[in-house]
Amino acid sequence: HLLNIFKVFAFNHINVKNSVVEIMSLSFLLIAIFTLLNINQIDGQNTLNFDTQSGLDTWNADSLLSMKIIGGTKAKFASTPYQVSVRLNGYHFCGGSIIANDVVLTAAHCIFKDQLNNYQVQYGVDNVGKTANIVKIAKITTHEKFNKDTIDYDVAVIKLTAPIRLGVWAKIIPLAKANPPAGANAVVVGWGQTDENGPTVQQLQSINVKIVAPKVCSQKYKKIDKITDRMICAGVSGGGKGTCGGDSGGPLAVNGQQVGIVSWGVGCAHPDFPGVYSSVAKLRSWITAHMK
C-alpha cells in the first residue's frame, strides 16, 4: 500500500521534465524504506571497476521516470536477440543491448554509484524470472556530459567480465550511423510495466512505433524542456503504446539497427508526448570509443 501511495503521488506530479529529479529522489526514499539502501545518481563520466554480487530489491527509480512497455504484446525473442536485462540486486532493473560480445549499451540514468557491486547483465532469455545466462560486470562508463536534470547525453557502456555466448538467442545489434527518417517503423521491447501503476513484468513485451520528426517532437515538448540533438522521438498516433519504468536503457531499432536508447518521457504512452530516446547516431563516436 505504501508503494502505491508513493507511485500515485509521483505520477500525478510528472508535469514538467525537470520534475524527474524530484521523482527519482522520491523513489530513492522508497528503496531506502524497503532495503535500507541509499542510492545516488552518477554525475558526469565515471569509469568504475567492480565485481558483481546479487541482492534482493526489485523496485527501481525508473518506474517513476515513465519508461515502460504499454500496449505491447508478447515479444518473439528470436526477433530481438540483442535485448538484455541490466539487473540490480539480483532482479531486472533496466534494459540494454548487445553491441559486442562483451559490451552492453544502456542509459546513463540507469547507473547508481552506491549500487555498483549489485549490477549484472542477463542475456538470451525472454523471461527475467529465470536465472540463466547471468554475467558479471567489469566496468561501467557513463557519458561525461550526462545531465540528470535535462537527461541529455543519456548513455552508458557496460563492459562484461566474460564474453556472451553468441547464437540464435544472443546477437550483436549494429549501431546506426544516421538518425532514421520521420515516419520510419521502429520496434522497442522490454520488461517494463504494462500498466502505469502496475509492476514490471517477467515476460518480454514488444511494441511497434513510428519515428517522430524532430520539429514535431520539439513542439510537443516546448513547455517541458528542450529536445536536443542527442535525442530522437518515437510513438504512435493517439498514444496507448509506449515505454516506461523498467524499459529504460533498452534499444529502439529500425531495420535491424539500433537507432535509440530508451531515455525519458512525460506520462506513459501519453497521446500528446512521444517517447524520447538517446540518439545512437549522434552518440556513436563516444560509444565506440568506450567499448574497449
Automatic annotation (TrEMBL):
<dbReference type="InterPro" id="IPR043504">
    <property type="entry name" value="Peptidase_S1_PA_chymotrypsin"/>
</dbReference>
<keyword id="KW-0378">Hydrolase</keyword>
<feature type="domain" description="Peptidase S1">
    <location>
        <begin position="69"/>
        <end position="292"/>
    </location>
</feature>
<dbReference type="InterPro" id="IPR009003">
    <property type="entry name" value="Peptidase_S1_PA"/>
</dbReference>
<keyword id="KW-1133">Transmembrane helix</keyword>
<comment type="similarity">
    <text>Belongs to the peptidase S1 family.</text>
</comment>
<dbReference type="GO" id="GO:0004252">
    <property type="term" value="F:serine-type endopeptidase activity"/>
</dbReference>
<keyword id="KW-0865">Zymogen</keyword>
<keyword id="KW-0964">Secreted</keyword>
<dbReference type="GO" id="GO:0016485">
    <property type="term" value="P:protein processing"/>
</dbReference>
<dbReference type="InterPro" id="IPR050430">
    <property type="entry name" value="Peptidase_S1"/>
</dbReference>
<keyword id="KW-0472">Membrane</keyword>
<dbReference type="InterPro" id="IPR001254">
    <property type="entry name" value="Trypsin_dom"/>
</dbReference>
<keyword id="KW-0720">Serine protease</keyword>
<keyword id="KW-0812">Transmembrane</keyword>
<dbReference type="InterPro" id="IPR018114">
    <property type="entry name" value="TRYPSIN_HIS"/>
</dbReference>
<protein>
    <submittedName>
        <fullName>Hypodermin-B</fullName>
    </submittedName>
</protein>
<dbReference type="GO" id="GO:0005576">
    <property type="term" value="C:extracellular region"/>
</dbReference>
<keyword id="KW-1015">Disulfide bond</keyword>
<keyword id="KW-0645">Protease</keyword>
<feature type="transmembrane region" description="Helical">
    <location>
        <begin position="20"/>
        <end position="39"/>
    </location>
</feature>
<dbReference type="InterPro" id="IPR001314">
    <property type="entry name" value="Peptidase_S1A"/>
</dbReference>
<dbReference type="InterPro" id="IPR033116">
    <property type="entry name" value="TRYPSIN_SER"/>
</dbReference>
<dbReference type="Pfam" id="PF00089">
    <property type="entry name" value="Trypsin"/>
</dbReference>
